[in-house]
Amino acid sequence: MRKGSLEFWPHRRAHRQMPRMRAWPESAEPSFLGFAGFKAGMTHVTMVDDSDSPSKGSEIAKAVTILEVPEVYVYGIRAYAKKYQYTQPASDYIDQNLAKRLHIKNAVKGIDKLTDASAFTDVTALAFIDPAVIGIANKKIMRMEIAVGGKSAQEKADFVKKWVGKSVKVTDVFGTGDYIDVKAITTGKGWAGVVKRFGVATQGRKATGKRRHVGVLGAWHPAKVLYTVPHAGHMGYNYRTELNKRVLKIGSQNDAKDVNVKGGFLNYGVIRSDYIMVDGSIPGPAKRFIRIRKALRSTHAKKEPKLTYVSLASKQGS
To answer: Can you give the residue range of the structural domain that contains 15?
Structure first.
């Protein structure tokens, strides 16, 4: 009997480590709707439960994930226009000082050329983050597109113009108690059999001489193997989205000592720049690139969490 989930199908390997952000929340206020960072590791905290559960008002323990979020630099503007039935990128306006550094060609250089955005349907910000700033040995700068809030394309363009060539900090986008969505690539586990991949029960010793395999591949008719039948194959390294993760704390590099565990996080080290503490777990191993956006479907009201303890115990022996 199959025990695995068909919620995600097909089980295929991600093409790249830059997650695609296909949807953004709507906001009438001119602001950035997303950010990015790197997964450092996990620890646990105690906090006062401010939910409506039976433990409300009591001190509870929670597992948290620490993300290191260095500054993100805005290097240009992307304008969208409607062509036939679809909305497609019309032109990219790139800052001349950053175009050479990023090796960008075939783009309109000079933000001043975007004087009238009324002909466009949408405007987004082009940004990049340099992993070398926090000591991650990545050969390439991570470039991405971040949506912007605003009532019109002109209002969005005017907002992004003020930030081109400048750095954006996580405190310019999110606040403590906000709900966010995270996108990442899960940990790759290589080739896996059906028992590990789908949770199929192992066979008895006297069944067929084999134990960790599927008992039958399907019915006599239809005379074919359906895609729903568990098979061995590649496991992990998939695109995944986690919704409604709560930000419990935002800190700068000056107070990184408040979350740096003894001996550093496993396979990562210590926090060197700004960071955010997120309730619960996040897909991917240490050093994985994480994209963040404001919650798309959150129904929770923003509340300032009250942390009473943050565990700094060493994770080396765990």
So the answer is: 1-70+177-188+236-318
